[in-house]
Each structure stands twice: as structure tokens, then as C-alpha cells.
């Protein structure tokens, strides 16, 4: 085997084409991962984690790559990132108002996706279609365009009373997924949630909350030779060396013949990759 790269991991970069193309950033290099499918690879954790924000060495990664002080102080680690309906910018308590203005006061999309069954989610406009590929969705449909993260969170919470808002990662990795008509699901949701949606549109204004009746459902194909029958996941903290034949990639997971590993989970880990 030859070492291809060594350094701090970042989540895989994706490009949408007939089949998703993956690149794994390792240190200052980027490894084209599709070329390694069908070949044996080894990932070796070097025993160090450096905060993805400040570079401080940390014994534990918080919120996918941050040290504890950054986790407690940075706006991108606040609870409202996971639960955008809890945005508190208007209360004057945002951890960093300039960051909030840049990232939270921009167009967001509310979408339906099929990764392990239908789910509702949100993403910044700049993250379409990246967000869907990161989640391993095989189908996706934007249904609302809104002006702020708070608004997207309120719509997501309303629709989330009727459909899931999380992915079953084991089903996603087994490809235990049926094709869905997300347009029909959207129409049913709009009908079911009509009163709540009208209330939000009245609260924020139609200019800020646009339904997307003409949006088209997209289909996403992943580079996978064989899906696992049983999902066993690796953890660098318990197994510093992970080896196997790369069977494919879906979401942010490498699928090996020996198990799977979520690369995004180990952002900021110092790792060497060989093939």
C-alpha cells in the first residue's frame, strides 16, 4: 500500500453528476475517492485531534471537530443550528451577530428528501444539492424558499409533526429505500398543514415565504458496488486502524467490506489514508 495523504480530516466534498463524485480532504490534500472503489484501503488515526476552528489540540471532538471552548462560544455550535426554530438573534443574544447576519439571514430552503423514507429538512441556498448528498438521499424536492433560518425552522417543525425529520442511517446504508413521489407527499402536507402554513405566511409575509409548486424532484445515484446486509460501524476512538475493500460511498460514509465509517463524524482527526 502507498500513503495517499496524511493530516486533518474534513467532510467529503461532493459533486453531483450521473453518479455522485467524492473527494476526501486530508490535510492540504484532496483524495479522489471514487477511484478507490473496489480496492483495499487503510485509514490510520494518528492519535491527535486539532480543533477545526482554532487549531488547539483537544482530547475529544465536540460538534464534529471543535474543542470544548470553541464549542461553547462559537455561533456555529449553538443549539439553534440543530434546532433553527430556537434562533435567538432577535433577542440580542446571538453568540456573534456578524456571523448570524451572514449565515442565518440568507435564503434557506425547506425540502423533502428520501434517504430512509420521506423526511423534511432545511438547508441554506448555497448548500443545495450538497446537503442531500451528505444525507445519502436518493430523491429530493425543495418545497419552500424562505428568507431566514428561523423561518425555515418554523416551517420544518410544523411539517415535522407529520413526517420524519431524521434519517435512519442504517436503512440508508443498506439502501433499504423505496422510490417515492415527493411531489404528491408535498401536496398532501400542504393540505394537511394549510392552517399552520397560512399563519406563518401571515406572520412573516408572502415575500419572505415562497412555496415552490413548480420545483422538480431530483434523483441521486451513489457509487456503490455492494450494499451491506448488516451495518457495522467503525469508531477511530476505539479502532484507530480501519482497513477493508472500499465497496462504495453514500452520504458521508465509506462502505468497506469490513464495516462502515462516517467521515464527517471524525472531522479534525489526524488520519493517514493508504491504498
Could you give a short description of this structure?
By secondary structure, the protein is of the alpha+beta class. The protein is built from eight helices and 14 strands.
Question: Can you offer a commentary on this structure?
Answer:
With 275 residues, the protein is of the alpha+beta class. The protein has a domain at 3-65 and 245-274. Helix content is 22%, strand content 29%. It has 8 helices and 14 strands. It has helices at 68-73, 79-82, 97-103, 130-134, 149-159, 169-174, 182-192, 194-204; strands at residues 3-8, 13-15, 21-26, 29-32, 40-49, 108-114, 118-124, 139-146, 209-211, 218-219, 241-250, 253-256, 259-262, 269-274. The strands form 3 sheets. It has a 6-stranded antiparallel beta sheet with strand order 1-14-5-11-12-13, with no helix packed on it. Strands 6, 7, 8, 9 and 10 form a 5-stranded antiparallel beta sheet that branches. Strands 2-3-4 form a 3-stranded antiparallel beta sheet. A hairpin with a 2-residue loop joins strand 11 and strand 12. Helix 5 (149-159) packs antiparallel against helix 8 (194-204). The longest helix has 11 residues, at 149-159. It is globular and about 60 Å long.
Beta-strand content bin: 25-35%
The percent of residues in helical segments reads 10-25%
How far apart are the termini?
5 Å
Query: What form results from the Cα inertia axes?
Result: globular
Give the assembly state of these chains. single chain
List the total number of helices: 8
Q: Kindly provide the radius of gyration, computed on alpha-carbon positions and rounded to a whole number of angstroms.
A: 20 Å
Structural class: alpha+beta
Amino acid at each position: 500500500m502507498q500513503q495517499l495523504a496524511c493530516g486533518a480530516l474534513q467532510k467529503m466534498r461532493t459533486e453531483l453528476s450521473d453518479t455522485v463524485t467524492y473527494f476526501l480532504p486530508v490535510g492540504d490534500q484532496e483524495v479522489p475517492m471514487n477511484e478507490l472503489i473496489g480496492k483495499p484501503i487503510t485509514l490510520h488515526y494518528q492519535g491527535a485531534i486539532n480543533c477545526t476552528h482554532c487549531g488547539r489540540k483537544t482530547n475529544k471532538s465536540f460538534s464534529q471537530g471543535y474543542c470544548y471552548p470553541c464549542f461553547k462560544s462559537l455561533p456555529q455550535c449553538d443549539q439553534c443550528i440543530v434546532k433553527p426554530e430556537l434562533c435567538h438573534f432577535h433577542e440580542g443574544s446571538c453568540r456573534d451577530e456578524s456571523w448570524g447576519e451572514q449565515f442565518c439571514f440568507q435564503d434557506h430552503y425547506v425540502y423533502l428528501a428520501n434517504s430512509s423514507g420521506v423526511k423534511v429538512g432545511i438547508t441554506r441556498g448555497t448548500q443545495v444539492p450538497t446537503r442531500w448528498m451528505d444525507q445519502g438521499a436518493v430523491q429530493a424536492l425543495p418545497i419552500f424558499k424562505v428568507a431566514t433560518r428561523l423561518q425555515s425552522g418554523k416551517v420544518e417543525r410544523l411539517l415535522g409533526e407529520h413526517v420524519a425529520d431524521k434519517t435512519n442511517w442504517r436503512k440508508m446504508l443498506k439502501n433499504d429505500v423505496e422510490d417515492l413521489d415527493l411531489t404528491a407527499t408535498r401536496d398532501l402536507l400542504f393540505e394537511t398543514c394549510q392552517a399552520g402554513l397560512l399563519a406563518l405566511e401571515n406572520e412573516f409575509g408572502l415575500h419572505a415565504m415562497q412555496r415552490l409548486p413548480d420545483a422538480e424532484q431530483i434523483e441521486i445515484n451513489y457509487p456503490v458496488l455492494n450494499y451491506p446486509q448488516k451495518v457495522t460501524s467503525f469508531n477511530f476512538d476505539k479502532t484507530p486502524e480501519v482497513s477493508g475493500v472500499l465497496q462504495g460511498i453514500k452520504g458521508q460514509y465509506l462502505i468497506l467490506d469490513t464495516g462502515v465509517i462516517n467521515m464527517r463524524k471524525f472531522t479534525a482527526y489526524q488520519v493517514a489514508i493508504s491504498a
